[in-house]
Amino acid sequence: MHNDLKTQNLESLSIVGVGLLGGSVGLAFRAAGGTAERVGVGRRRSSITRAVEVGAIDRGTLSYRSGVGRADLVIVATPLGHFKTVFRQLADHLPDGAVVTDVGSTKASVMEWAAELLPPTVRFVGSHPMAGSETAGVDFARADLFHRAQCFIVPSDRADEDAVALVEGFWRKLGMRTRQVTPDQHDRIVAQISHLPHVVASALMEVAVVGESLDSAATGFADTTRVASGSPGMWADILMTNRRGVCDAVDELVERLLSIRKWLDAADTDQILQFLERSQKARDAWVQRRYAEREIEP
Amino acid sequence: MHNDLKTQNLESLSIVGVGLLGGSVGLAFRAAGGTAERVGVGRRRSSITRAVEVGAIDRGTLSYRSGVGRADLVIVATPLGHFKTVFRQLADHLPDGAVVTDVGSTKASVMEWAAELLPPTVRFVGSHPMAGSETAGVDFARADLFHRAQCFIVPSDRADEDAVALVEGFWRKLGMRTRQVTPDQHDRIVAQISHLPHVVASALMEVAVVGESLDSAATGFADTTRVASGSPGMWADILMTNRRGVCDAVDELVERLLSIRKWLDAADTDQILQFLERSQKARDAWVQRRYAEREIEP
Description:
The structure is a homodimer. Chain A is of the alpha/beta class. The first copy, chain A, has two domains: 7-181, NAD(P)-binding Rossmann-like Domain (Rossmann fold, 3-Layer(aba) Sandwich); 186-267, Orthogonal Bundle (6-phosphogluconate dehydrogenase C-terminal fold). Chain A is built from eleven helices and eight strands. Chain A has helices at 20-31, 45-53, 64-68, 83-93, 108-117, 161-173, 183-210, 219-224, 232-240, 243-265, 269-293; strands at 12-16, 37-41, 59-61, 73-76, 99-102, 123-129, 150-155, 177-180. Chain A has an eight-stranded mixed sheet with strand order 3-2-1-4-5-6-7-8, sandwiched between helices. In chain A, strand 5 (99-102), helix 5 and strand 6 (123-129) form a beta-alpha-beta unit. In chain A, helix 7 crosses helix 10 (243-265). The termini of chain A are far apart. Chains A and B meet through helix 7, helix 8, helix 9, helix 10 and helix 11 of A and helix 7, helix 8, helix 9, helix 10 and helix 11 of B.
């Protein structure tokens, strides 16, 4: 029955974890005309109730049996730290052939957990929608959260073409651009554009705190360190599940910083100027491309 | 005649370089009720004309003799790379006892140039108003650019108390908070909160370009790298005049990054979590203080 499943044929969509991301999936799916019943699975009665109130799900439950027992597609949208527990619960209650995806910020570890903990009859396709915010909770969920942003798609060995097409079609229906990558490619890319910037922003804060220079800091410093205000627990989970990717990215940055330091030490103005010019041109070109694709402030 | 000069007694204010900062000084001084004649000195007729048109100065000239020959207070607001040339011109044309200050982003080099190139009769007080933007040119000048921001004050050996009070009073009149520091203190502080973040933002861009990960980058990356869009020429000048300060700050950051790398390598979740918690708490507390002082986006 599942072989030719298309987004428009979905009858039952389960969302495990109805916070900012899970709630936004529910809102965006309905806004895009999705008619499947949206079932929320949560750990607290209060958040399930709230998710129904804001229209993010049609019904909510604390029970996996009731929540995913007839699911065509399951979206795991809990914090990364709960994934293993969630996968074990799903293994006990999913129907054969169900397609499972997630919204986790790292992929190599998630793919391993899925292979280990989900039964072979379940078709797992990893996802990472590059959307979110520093806020948390279903009260901040928005139907347009995913609009025009990018979603990584990471097929597992157990996912056939139909399952991959279903998951890819699902995120496209929600307004995203999709990009298929391997788990290692994914983790290397996000280390460079997200995990390393987070580590660096947090380390810059610490340098300023220890140096007692913080009270003179202004707008530029506020921009550069903004991501350091993200949830420490969530980010510890992310960094710890992408240790290799982050370490490699740290090494690449440190190597560059030491080159710059050498040029400064040698008063090599040309090298410093060329470095700053390369980065400025690259950033301006990227902002222009991005600005054309999606409305962000330049 | 100059011994008890106060901001309210200024008769002639000269602004050398009428771009974003110099133009904003002119606008802000008039908006704050300053009545002294505002004389602009520039290198191009067109920018002088434009500065008069937007009301940033009362009259403009390409000649130092006409521009600063009767000045009570001179503000040097050119790019750092022109300071030595400007100081030589000022030396030839300033009246005895004139007070000179600047808006340069580094201070140890500037103080050396002033001591070397300005005559002993001129009272130099270094300034660094922490205001500006990625835009350039007098068309972007604003009367409120300095409002509630901080200005570093760096007295020279040749500046008596009256000269320091005049310069400090001037920036306060424009709405700034002032903070007196030594040249070395200044350069260490701005290395940590401004120059290092600039170097790091530019280096993060390069890691992403070389790793071909840029096309997946999102809002967090845009924030963290925003300052890398600043003028390469201006920033090369800044970094090259604060080589010691920037090298020390790079060393402090690299040391921290290598600690973090070690914790990741050892899977030391506790250390990673504590590090992220310290930085998040420090940033949130800083944003709250800053938000209370000055309206910026949290």
